[in-house]
Amino acid sequence: MKSRIISLTIALGYIAFAYFDGGLVTALRVTAIVLLPLACIWFSDTMGGYTGVNFGRGQINKTTPGCLVAFGGWFLLLSPPIWIIAGALSSNN
Q1: What does residue 57 show for φ and ψ, rounded to 5 degrees?
Q2: How far apart are CA 69 and CA 34, in angstroms?
Q3: 72/74 Cα distance (integer angstroms)
């Protein structure tokens, strides 16, 4: 339950920042982008159970542990600030 609250807070922060910085259209785009990481975090066991999906490179034929799906969701959700910080640090040199 804590991970859902924390992830939702982070996602709402992204959306609010996008709205105040770029307007409604930007906020809606950010909302669409954060839906996948939130789904991976909130429903990791269910999403890890999907098999038979074909993304053009082969079929998913084994389930994925929910903890790995959740980790991937957290990585996607937290990657924008990591890239921003890395870019700021590299531009200072």
Answers
A1: -120, 5
A2: 15
A3: 5
Amino acid at 89: L
| Residue 48: CB atoms within 10 Å | 19
- Tens of pLDDT, residue by residue over 15-70, are 999 999 889 999 999 999 999 999 999 999 988 887 776 766 667 778 889 999 99
> What residues have CB less than 8 Å from 67, skipping those under 6 apart?
44
SS3 19: helix
33 CB burial (10 A radius; 0-12, 13-18, 19+): middle
Q: So where are the chain's domains?
A: 2-51+61-91
Cα–Cα distance between 64 and 35 in angstroms, integer?
19
How many angstroms separate the CA atoms of 33 and 22, rounded?
15
